[in-house]
Structures are given as C-alpha cells and as structure tokens.
Amino acid sequence: MRSLVVITFLLISGNGAAQQLFGDRCVGTWKGMMQIYHLGKLRDSVEVQLTVAVEATHVWTWRMEYLSAKMPMVKDYKLRLKDADKNLYVTDEGGGLELTDYLTGNKLYSIFETQGIMLTSEYELRGDELIFEVTSGKKEIVSHPEVTNYSTTSVQRVVLKRIK
Question: Is 142 helix (H, G, I), strand (E, B) or coil?
Fold first, then answer.
C-alpha cells in the first residue's frame, strides 16, 4: 500500500527537474566552440564561455564571453521569468532593450527583428549540454501576398558543455 501511495504521489507531482525553472537548470559555467556560418559555409569559429548565476528570485545573470584572440567580447544579460503560466521569459540586454523568450519543454525561443534583419535565438538544454543557436536573414522579395519569406544567411551555433 505504501508503494502505491508513493507511486501515485510521483505521478501527480511529476518530475521535480521538469518543474524546475529553465534559468535554474542552466546555472553553472558552460564552454564550447561556436561555429559561424555564412550562406551555409563555415567561416569562423570562436571559443565561448557562458556563466549563468541566480541573481534574485526568477532573475539570472547570463554572461557570454567570446574568447577570441582577435576580438574578445563579453555580453552581460539578465534572463527574467515574466509569466510562469505562459512560460514567458525576457532577456534584458540593458538600456531598456528586452527580448521576449518563450519556453517549450527544454527549449527557449526568441524571434525578433532589428535594422531590417530577422533573428531567431534558441537555447536547448539536453542534460549537461546547452545548445545555443542564432540565425539571421532579411526579408525576401514578395512572391505571394499571403507569405513573407526570410533568408537564412548567417548561423551561429555552439554546443556548450557544463564545466562547473
């Protein structure tokens, strides 16, 4: 009988890890080699390190370091849970610039446009790997009034491995 109660509780409560917030599951230091493609051809690669830390309730620091000898760069962001019921997050880039992110399963999606360029950004958590991918392109010539196509001219992709 006790086993039945425990099993029922587990089924009702679900998996604890699945209920944990995306930002909390990403806490740690991650490292990987970003591949940079243009028009489908590998053009460059750069080692990156992502550090995610809890800053406050439902707020995480999200620091991406591009460890390039030629052009090192650091991007400091904050990831905030905006609405748990809608799985809605916000990437705060500072200066009032916020990108809307939507969580589905283990994947965080963002689609936005800036200066005529459409970008998609995805983080997918797979165990001790965090896959980060950004695509970009421009609006193509209208071939049908009901559909707007966008090119995918650039892709940046890195499989980050948790190092701590």
Answer: coil
Long-range contacts of 148-151 (CB under 8 A, 24+ apart): 150/118
Residues 117, 100: Cα–Cα separation, whole Å: 16
| 10 domain-assigned | no
Domain assignment of residue 100, yes or no: yes
On the 0-12 / 13-18 / 19+ scale of CB atoms within 10 A, 123 is buried
**Chain segment 28-80, per-residue pLDDT in tens:** 999 999 999 999 999 999 999 999 999 999 999 999 999 998 899 999 999 99
For the domain that residue 158 is a member of, what is the CATH number?
2.40.128.20
Q: Which domain holds residue 48?
A: 22-162
**Domain-embedded: residue 81:** yes
Task: Name the residue among 81, 84, 83 with its Cα closest to residue 92.
Answer: 81
Task: At 16, give phi and psi (nearest 5°).
Answer: -60, -40
Q: Say if residues 148 and 141 touch (Cβ distance below 8 Å).
A: no
Residue 17 falls inside a structural domain = no
Residue type, 135: T
